[in-house]
Inverse folding.
């Protein structure tokens, strides 16, 4: 996200497209591996329910955050949106890493 914000700020559209493509490919490679792993560790009777709940939660989050991100991008800029999201993700990761060190 931070690279996307920098490339948008610098007006480098090809780099932005390549980063989106890379993220999309990584997600679609990771998803079948995750589903296969979950299939191994979950009960067969619960697998479909858990995956359905996961898809439902993802859809609800998209319904909530897509309009908020659209408003933010319209009011400020897309570059600023990506920059804020990148900073937010970095902070969340740092919080999780500090929590793991304490445990």
């Amino acid at each position: 996200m931070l690279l996307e914000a920098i490339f948008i700020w610098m007006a480098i559209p090809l780099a932005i497209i390549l980063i989106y493509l890379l993220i999309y490919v990584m997600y679609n490679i990771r998803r079948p591996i995750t589903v296969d792993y979950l299939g191994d560790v979950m009960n067969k009777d619960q697998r479909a329910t858990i995956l359905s709940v996961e898809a439902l939660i993802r859809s609800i989050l998209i319904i909530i955050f897509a309009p908020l991100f659209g408003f933010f991008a319209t009011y400020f800029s897309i570059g600023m949106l990506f920059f804020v999201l990148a900073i937010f993700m970095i902070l969340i990761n740092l919080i999780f890493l500090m929590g793991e060190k304490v445990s």
